[in-house]
């Protein structure tokens, strides 16, 4: 993709175009360019840049010239596909998708099936011979637009038809969904820009230290329909398990569905084996594409795909959000595969991830005879105990609680950040709850079945998300020994070679012992101090202070987190 002559706010595709700037087009559009350059099948698209987003917030309106450039972009899609935006024959529908330079899965808005109205519905029905499909596309679009652009808070998903959705939106916000596709497009682009400053996006950036003014690009892409017929569907594929890092495809497929159905968690999809059974050739093509993207990306990939009438289309590929366990396994395995060297592998795992991995586990035998209150799929492993709440606001007011929801959405993220564990009634291993919990390294169990919220709320529970079980009460736990884990042992060896700091379980005297000093801030080190111990020196800030004071050895029972913090600090200062 590259900017077409005369365009200020758009980047458009073209054969053999150079690699675009990720900062300009966002990670989603950059991945489309990469997949297309590798010869993979991608629906055509163009991108409204992050510069347009910044200009929008400067004036609180679409920047001058953007509406004319959107016409240019749509005309390019029409020419490539032989379709017409808003047309009465072979209509073109598009998705309007967010895409920041730094991946923020599920934090900003996506609007599907845009360009639909009564005339387009009739044209789709005539083209496909399926009036029910056309009506469903129209109903879905109306709900997307009403919720994400007009701000309706009504429950629209289960309403029977477009007329009912329209009426609910009009009653709620006092404004109709426009019939003009161009009006729809302009408002949708502005709404996606605004979603980059939504409460959930702000909370996510704050949690991960992402710049607040990052903004978003907007990818406008021709629709492909996973809900077209029995030979269509949608899914998500991880090239390696995001739960434990196993080198095998991991994902789910939903026949006759759109991507939003899988991500939302409202519908529990099928294992990828369903696709292999129904369409073995499509499944083989998907696996080959996944291997290519894993190899070219030099990392585990999270791939969104749609099958339309038996034909595979790739919609996105990005480095997969993963648990701490998976991060460690993948880093070590990439070294064994010759993809990374040891020095790069230790930069793929953070000190915080290792601390998470070393969190206590349920003590041996403690779960025997314990009361099981719920059981589902362990989507993000770990153990946590807390009182169950059922709203994100309650979770934020009670940090360390367990948040239980029917399914989660981006609006729940502030509560998910505060909770010690997340449990849902619905959804699978690639649902919103699962993906965000893995990114947060929060224990998560999904798909526990109807009634779990009511059964659990107000109770103290222990969530064993490794096994996918919620137990009554607080079960005893025991510490994890990093020396007994082969992957951690190898990472520790590599990390020790990559830093001048020595981290040891014991050391000869003299040792400056921060734990015996006054509690509070990092104590001032006496001149010439070479060896220190204490919890404060196991934090990133403590490691920084120690290194800058000339400390040569930190004594701690858990070596790897301190070594990784030292490597991160040294990299930041070079």
From TrEMBL:
<dbReference type="Pfam" id="PF01326">
    <property type="entry name" value="PPDK_N"/>
</dbReference>
<dbReference type="GO" id="GO:0005524">
    <property type="term" value="F:ATP binding"/>
</dbReference>
<dbReference type="InterPro" id="IPR013815">
    <property type="entry name" value="ATP_grasp_subdomain_1"/>
</dbReference>
<dbReference type="GO" id="GO:0050242">
    <property type="term" value="F:pyruvate, phosphate dikinase activity"/>
</dbReference>
<dbReference type="Pfam" id="PF00391">
    <property type="entry name" value="PEP-utilizers"/>
</dbReference>
<dbReference type="InterPro" id="IPR002192">
    <property type="entry name" value="PPDK_AMP/ATP-bd"/>
</dbReference>
<dbReference type="InterPro" id="IPR036637">
    <property type="entry name" value="Phosphohistidine_dom_sf"/>
</dbReference>
<dbReference type="InterPro" id="IPR008279">
    <property type="entry name" value="PEP-util_enz_mobile_dom"/>
</dbReference>
<feature type="domain" description="PEP-utilising enzyme mobile">
    <location>
        <begin position="398"/>
        <end position="468"/>
    </location>
</feature>
<keyword id="KW-0808">Transferase</keyword>
<feature type="domain" description="Pyruvate phosphate dikinase AMP/ATP-binding">
    <location>
        <begin position="66"/>
        <end position="270"/>
    </location>
</feature>
<protein>
    <submittedName>
        <fullName>Pyruvate, phosphate dikinase</fullName>
        <ecNumber>2.7.9.1</ecNumber>
    </submittedName>
</protein>
<dbReference type="GO" id="GO:0016301">
    <property type="term" value="F:kinase activity"/>
</dbReference>
<keyword id="KW-0670">Pyruvate</keyword>
<dbReference type="InterPro" id="IPR018274">
    <property type="entry name" value="PEP_util_AS"/>
</dbReference>
<dbReference type="InterPro" id="IPR010121">
    <property type="entry name" value="Pyruvate_phosphate_dikinase"/>
</dbReference>
């Amino acid at each position: 993709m590259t900017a077409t002559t005369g365009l200020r706010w758009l980047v458009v595709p073209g054969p053999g175009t150079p690699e675009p700037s990720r900062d300009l087009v966002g990670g989603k559009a950059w991945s489309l360019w990469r997949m297309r350059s590798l010869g993979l099948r991608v629906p055509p698209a163009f991108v409204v840049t992050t510069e347009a987003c910044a200009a929008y917030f400067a004036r609180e309106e679409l920047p001058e010239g953007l509406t004319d450039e959107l016409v240019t972009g749509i005309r390019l899609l029409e020419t490539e596909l032989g379709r017409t935006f808003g047309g009465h024959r072979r209509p073109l529908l598009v998705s309007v998708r967010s895409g920041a330079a730094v991946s923020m899965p599920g934090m900003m808005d996506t609007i599907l099936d845009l360009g639909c109205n009564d005339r387009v519905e009739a044209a789709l029905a005539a083209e496909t011979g399926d009036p029910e499909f056309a009506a469903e596309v129209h109903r879905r679009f109306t709900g997307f637009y009403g919720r994400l652009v007009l701000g309706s808070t009504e429950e629209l998903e289960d309403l029977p038809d477009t007329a009912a959705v329209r009426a609910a939106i009009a009653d709620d916000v006092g404004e109709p969904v426009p019939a003009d596709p161009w009006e729809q497009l302009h408002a949708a682009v502005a709404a996606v820009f605004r979603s980059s400053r939504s409460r959930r996006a702000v909370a996510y950036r704050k949690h991960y230290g992402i710049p607040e003014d990052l903004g978003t690009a907007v990818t406008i892409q021709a629709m492909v329909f996973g809900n077209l017929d029995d030979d269509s569907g949608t899914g998500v594929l991880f090239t390696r398990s995001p739960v434990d890092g196993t080198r095998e495809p991991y994902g789910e497929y939903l026949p006759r569905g759109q991507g939003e159905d899988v991500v939302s968690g409202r519908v529990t999809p099928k294992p990828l084996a369903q696709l292999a059974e129904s369409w073995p050739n499509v499944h083989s093509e998907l696996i080959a594409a996944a291997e290519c993207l894993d190899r070219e990306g030099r990392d585990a990939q999270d791939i969104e795909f749609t099958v339309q009438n038996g034909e595979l289309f790739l919609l996105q590929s990005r480095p997969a959000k993963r648990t701490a366990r998976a991060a460690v396994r993948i880093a070590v395995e990439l070294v064994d595969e010759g993809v990374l060297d040891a020095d790069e592998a230790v930069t793929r795992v953070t000190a915080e991830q290792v601390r998470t991995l070393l969190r206590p586990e349920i003590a041996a035998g403690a779960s025997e005879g314990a009361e099981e209150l719920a059981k589902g799929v362990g989507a993000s492993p770990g153990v946590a105990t807390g009182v169950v709440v059922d709203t994100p606001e309650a979770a934020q007011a009670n940090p360390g609680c367990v948040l239980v929801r029917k399914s989660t959405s981006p609006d729940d993220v502030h509560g998910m950040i505060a909770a010690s564990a997340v449990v849902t009634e619905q959804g699978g291993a690639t649902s919103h709850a699962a993906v965000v919990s893995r990114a947060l390294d929060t224990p998560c169990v999904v798909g526990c079945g109807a009634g779990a919220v009511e059964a659990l709320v107000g109770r103290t529970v222990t969530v064993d998300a490794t096994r996918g079980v919620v137990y009554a009460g607080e079960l005893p736990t025991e510490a994890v020994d990093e020396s007994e884990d082969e992957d951690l042992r190898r990472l520790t060896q590599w990390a020790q070679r990559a830093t001048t700091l020595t981290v040891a379980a014991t050391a000869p005297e003299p040792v400056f012992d921060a734990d015996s000093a006054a509690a509070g801030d990092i104590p001032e080190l006496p001149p010439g101090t070479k060896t220190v111990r204490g919890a404060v020196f196991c934090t990133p800030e403590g490691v920084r202070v120690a290194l800058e004071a000339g400390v040569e050895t930190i004594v701690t029972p858990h070596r790897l987190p301190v070594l990784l913090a030292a490597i991160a600090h040294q990299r930041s200062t070079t």
